[in-house]
Amino acid sequence: MVSPFDVLGLDDDADDDDVERAYRERVKEAHPDTGGTIEEFQLVRRAYRLLSEPGRDEDATVGDGDASDVDLTADADADGAGQIRVEFLDYEAIVDRGWRLDDDDLFAKASDADLPASDHGRLLVDPDESLLEAAENRGYSWPFSCRGGACANCAVYLVEGELSQPANHILSEDHAARGFRLSCNGYPVSDELKVVFNVKHVPELDELRLPPGPFRRARSQ
Ligand code: FES
Question: How confident is the model over 167-218, as pLDDT tens digits?
Fold first, then answer.
């Protein structure tokens, strides 16, 4: 069995800030897109979850030293382990109602507005899913084109949380600093996210769009 502190390369007396910093570093290294494996990625996620719990058990372990021995079955995730909660909002709903993208109360307004489930809702992202894949796998039709980091069609705006961005050939550092990410290869590296999707319609991203890829038809939502 291995200690979650060892998984994140931390001393046993690490505080919450140390855990957060170590997790952000380790989860990027462990991601399959940057040379890691899904097993390693999930191991890091589980270690972080154990150490982030209020009143954490200092003696908890995340499994054997061999990541393949970690329980990755559906049962292991039944309590949400390894999954990231995402609250999403469609940019077009923001435009239709005259709201602003940088409004601090944006999601509170969305909650009060009784929007359709496809415009505002919540979904879970599995460890091996990008944000776009998770939306599609839950029956939502979010925009995309190249799925390779070369257009702004799949762009989202981060209101809370963080997405890793292993492939980005289109968004500038300024875009990234202001919260824009690509959902097609964006993998959550925080436990929760609030995102605005469909931001390809933001005027400054308009010229970075490609002709749309084929939308998948939404299943029941
Ligand atoms: S669909 Fe083109 S970068 Fe995501």
Answer: 899 999 999 999 999 999 999 988 899 999 999 989 889 889 887 655 444 4
Atom of ligand 1 nearest to the CA of 144: 1
- Residue 149 alpha carbon to ligand 1 centre in Å: 5
Distance of alpha carbon 196 from alpha carbon 91, whole angstroms: 6
Of 123, 134, 180, which Cα lies nearest the Cα of 157? 180
CA–centroid distance, 7 to ligand 1, in Å, is: 32
| pTM: predicted TM-score of the whole model, two decimal places | 0.65
Q: Ligand 1, residue 182: give the atom nearest the CA.
A: 4
Please state the φ and ψ torsions of residue 36, each to the nearest 5 degrees: -90, -165
> What is the separation, in whole angstroms, between the first and last Cα of the chain?
40
- Give me the domains of the chain, ranges plus CATH numbers: 4-77 (1.10.287.110), 84-208 (3.10.20.30)
